[in-house]
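Exam prep: given the inputs below (a chain plus coenzyme A), describe the expected output before reading on.
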Amino acid sequence: MLKTKRTFIRPIEPADAVQIFSYRSDAGANKYQGWIPKSLEEVDAFIAKNQADFNTPDTWFQLVIIEKESQKIIGDIGVHFLHDGSQSEIGCTINKVFQNKGFATEALSAIIEYLFTTLKKHRIVASIDPKNTNSISLVKRLGFRKEAHHIQSLFINGEWVDDVIYAILNDEWQ
Ligand SMILES: CC(C)(COP(=O)(O)OP(=O)(O)OC[C@H]1O[C@@H](n2cnc3c(N)ncnc32)[C@H](O)[C@@H]1OP(=O)(O)O)[C@@H](O)C(=O)NCCC(=O)NCCS
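Solution:
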């Protein structure tokens, strides 16, 4: 488990399903996300497939962000460990009630610090819909650089959408 000033970050657990469903099922708030669960069972399945180990190549690992004050789950972070063992991809979803309060920046900073300092990753990337301005502001605030803009490269929620790639190297993280 990681601690930040206002949060705890820990692996997702089966008992988290109801809280995860409450904000992940919000199709409006999550319109740029590939996964919007329609039932609690979908969330159960999502949790069940989480890996036992944090740092297994070719897998995603899901974590939840818990606000210390309320002890509630306020969002989640996915870490994709790429096949080469040296690079990771990250994604983050915050319950809209808790957005714009700095929680995403605070929690992702702790995860990035762990990936670079403890796991010695070389590079971290984020793949974002260019219309998702909140997400782009978030990664820029964390020091990521824009590296690419792919045109209609992902099929999400029934349509082809663009994808921008932001990245940061271990050397660039302070
Ligand atoms: C992308 C997402 C996680 C970004 O979350 P967020 O709430 O905007 O990010 P933060 O909590 O770090 O908020 C940052 C803002 O809070 C402000 N803020 C308010 N109080 C703050 C505090 N105490 N500390 C730090 N920042 C604070 C910051 O100034 C900043 O605003 P600015 O951009 O105008 O400078 C969120 O929009 C989301 O969950 N979207 C839906 C899911 C999604 O699309 N995810 C992306 C998939 S790639």
